[in-house]
């Protein structure tokens, strides 16, 4: 999840929270007190971790390749 995707996700969350009536705001029953913003932030964190792991794997593979 690169920076543009993270920004897009949080922009959508912010727009929904700003424009939707309070009654339309989702309440997550599994995690009391957690709203859409918290879930959006967790999505961004998970995307960052996924991206970091993918990049580290690519770097490790590049370092293991013999030089020409």
Shape: elongated
Helix content: 55-70%
Radius of gyration: 18 Å
Provide mean pLDDT, rounded.
Answer: 85
Count of helix runs: 2
Report the biggest beta sheet as strand number plus sense, adding barrel if it closes. Answer: none
- How would you describe the oligomerization state of the chains in this entry? single chain
Low-pLDDT residue spans: none
Pairing-aware structural class of the strands and helices?
Answer: mainly alpha
User: How many structural domains in the coordinates?
Assistant: 1
Following the backbone from N to C, one meets helices and strands in this order, namely: HH
The separation of the N and C termini measures 32 Å
Counting DSSP E segments of at least 2 residues, the number of strands comes to 0
Report on this model:
- The chain is mostly helical and 68 residues long.
- The mean pLDDT is 85.
Main traits of this protein?
68 residues; mainly alpha; 2 helices
């Amino acid at each position: 999840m690169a920076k543009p995707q993270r920004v897009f996700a949080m922009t959508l969350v912010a727009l929904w929270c700003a424009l939707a009536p309070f009654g339309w705001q989702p309440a997550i029953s599994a995690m009391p007190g957690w709203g859409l913003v918290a879930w959006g932030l967790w999505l961004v964190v998970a995307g960052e971790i996924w991206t970091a792991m993918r990049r580290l794997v690519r770097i490790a593979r590049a370092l293991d390749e013999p030089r020409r």
